[in-house]
User: What shape does this take?
Amino acid sequence: MRHKVAGWKLGRNTAHRRSLLRNLVTSLIVEERIETTIPKAKAMRPHVEKMITLGKRGDLAARRLAASYLMTDESVVKLFDTIAPRFGDRNGGYLRIVRTAWQKGDGAEKAFVELLGSEKVLDEKREKRAEARAKRVAEAKKAMEEAEAQAQTQAAPEAAEKQEEEK
Assistant: This one.
């Protein structure tokens, strides 16, 4: 029995579990919202909170500790420059876990894990994607119209030749 043993094993050995959690924390800091299973989300929560607390400290030692845990330099920079200042007056509770659906293969319950206050960033990303999508649709429509016009100009002389042959 595992009485009073903290943490989640997640069905992995120690090295695999540590690597998984480091990747999840890094992805969350870079993307600000990820989808994962409920046990993984609950297991990564303390690690994310620790990283944000290090970001709030802001000194060189904290930056080096965060860099030793996070997988990319980009995530360290984002943590210290944008995410930590957002939570300057907040003492913990930086994450939101929102349950969504069940995984198709094994029926595991899925959840979105997001940083609080990331709604603005996510909305900006959605708007950029929508603008890019609209631009692609407009370009495709324009290309189709040009192709139709070109086809009509090629078909017009052929139709005139057929009328001459009929006479």
Notes: The longest strand covers residues 95-102. The longest helix spans residues 119-166. The beta strands are 33-37, 95-102, 109-115.
